[in-house]
Amino acid sequence: MTTSSLTTPTGTATADRRPPALGGFSPAVLLIEMRRVLRNRRTLLFTMVMPAVFFLLFGLPQRGETLPNGRQVLAWIMVSLAVYGAMVATTSAGAAVATERALGWSRQLRLTPLRPAAYVATKVATAMVLGLAAVVIEFAVGATAGVRLPAHVWLLAGLAAWLGSLVFAALGLLIGYLGPAENVMQFMGPVLALLAMFGGLFLPVETLPDVLQRLAQFTPVWGVGQLARAPLTGDPVTLGVLANVLGWTAVFALGAARLFRRDTQRV
Amino acid sequence: MTSACPAVELRGLRKSFGAVTAVDGLDLTIHPGEVVAFLGPNGAGKTTTIDMLLGLARPDAGEVRLLGGTPAEAVRYGRVAAVMQSGGLLKDLTVAETVRLTASFFGRTRPVAEVLTRAGIADLADRLVGKCSGGQQQRLRFALALLPDPDVMVLDEPTTGMDVEGRRDFWQAIRADARSGRTVVFATHYLDEADAYADRIVLVRQGRVVADGTTAEIKNLAAGRIVRATLPGADQAGLAALPGVDTVEVRGDAVLIRTGDSDAVARHLLTRTAARDLEITSRNLEDAFLALTADASADVAPTTVPARVAATAAPTAGA
């Protein structure tokens, strides 16, 4: 086979052909993905601009108010909206799978050596970069508008808001693998806003009626919100909070994995 | 050449979608370096066959071998590439970004600038894919397919929906590429494309190969030429008895003679009869196509089947 002929195509197959490293996951892919996101005005509007505008609209009038532990209410609003921005960002990045399936890109990818796992890894990485950007921008707007916090609170709250949004990257993938659709975020946007309300990102959960307050603790945003604000409020991170975050991560990730397998096995 | 395994080997391929049988026991062997047109009417099973060939669909029965291995292996090593009919592009990327992104999925590729040039879209590099015309998008798909420098290139009705100019530009790019030794398989329902670009034509109808041979052989299947003349009161039986004549048809003063030996018929008509306005026309590929791919509904089936069997048997044995 190797020596039979230099010109037959079957003979050229050997040494210089190899599958890509890491199944096709690479910084180059990530870079192009980021450029795509930055080109999408709607994503930028909902993940970067809107939370900042909300902060200026609803946060600034409460300047000077303080939480029970003496910290600024302004900081509470900032962290909450950072969580909101990050969750919208990661959900939309994950849900981009639905668009790519609708456009036939996923099918095109099956004619390349890219491994499905590397594809998902790219989507998660893109989601997390976008989520980080959302948190950083909201914090920058907050700092500019007068939020003052100790360094460790900035850091811990930021990390929690960012890493907590991994839950929603999983949710996004779950939605993305549910079915092909070009504009899935038109549907998911309002759903996320509703979840954010129950998660106490727009108003403290305590302002909700008693029954809804109890229900709120079982919705997926509540745990991440509590976790991200804990460094600020000094509230303990209860078992309930951890169970909420880990539980929903597991539900979304397993659901996404199941749909992903169904998708890759179908030939 | 004899030691090389076939580029494509399909054995007893079958695929149904519910009650509809799309591919019905298809056998086909394509050797390295062949340029093969997969020709058939819409719904003949071309796309389904190509999907199975590429590993995008699993056959209900039968076997697919691509360069001696499975389609998945060929894809993994970039030995096969395809230009699909539509879709498969991200509208929010530029042309160059699409090529760079796709290149990153392969272990080794041709340079991005090179494939853009070879596909004739170097000047469109910075245009958003969503703003490209159908023909430009198709040349982009072709550029992507060139990236891994594949041994087998598959094109599924690549010019569907293009205008005449778009089709010409697209085929010019393909022809300019024509790397010696690359196997090219393209599905089409345009006869002129099959005629102009393929060395070999495989005619499919209702999921089966109904004829397989060189373009000339396929044309011959439509049985010779037609001699037409004005000859009032033609002796139909006498003409039918001439050597090589298949049928004689009288339409008013005109007579139409289908024959394998048009010279003999013309000589006879002009020297022994009062025939005038003599015309000789070659039956073209379209006639062959229509004859071989006509829907085998009850009214035509009995007469066309034997011819088709003969057509399938002869060129395959010779290939």
Automatic annotation (TrEMBL), chain A:
Single Gene Ontology MF annotation: ABC-type transporter activity
Residues annotated as transmembrane: 43-61, 73-97, 118-141, 153-175, 187-205, 237-260
Start and end residues of each ABC transmembrane type-2 domain: 42-263
Keyword Membrane: yes
Organism from which the protein derives: Micromonospora matsumotoense
PROSITE patterns: ABC_TM2
GO CC terms of this entry: ATP-binding cassette (ABC) transporter complex
GO terms under biological process: response to antibiotic
Similarity annotation: Belongs to the ABC-2 integral membrane protein family.
Keywords attached to this entry: Antibiotic resistance, Cell membrane, Membrane, Transmembrane, Transmembrane helix, Transport
Name assigned to this protein: Transport permease protein
Residue span of region Disordered: 1-20
Entry's localization field: Cell membrane; Membrane
TrEMBL record, chain B:
Descriptive protein name: ABC-2 type transport system ATP-binding protein
Primary site of residence: membrane
Keyword annotations: Antibiotic resistance, ATP-binding, Nucleotide-binding, Transport
InterPro entries associated with the record: AAA+_ATPase (IPR003593), ABC_transporter-like_ATP-bd (IPR003439), ABC_transporter-like_CS (IPR017871), ABC_transporter_ATP-binding (IPR050763), P-loop_NTPase (IPR027417)
Species the sequence originates in: Micromonospora matsumotoense
GO biological process, one term: response to antibiotic
Top-rank taxon, per record: Bacteria
Annotated membrane topology: Peripheral membrane protein
Gene Ontology molecular function, alphabetical: ATP binding; ATP hydrolysis activity
Residue ranges of every copy of the ABC transporter domain listed in the record: 8-231
SUPFAM superfamilies in alphabetical order: P-loop containing nucleoside triphosphate hydrolases
A Pfam family it matches: ABC_tran
Cellular component annotations (GO), alphabetically ordered: plasma membrane
Subcellular location: Cell membrane
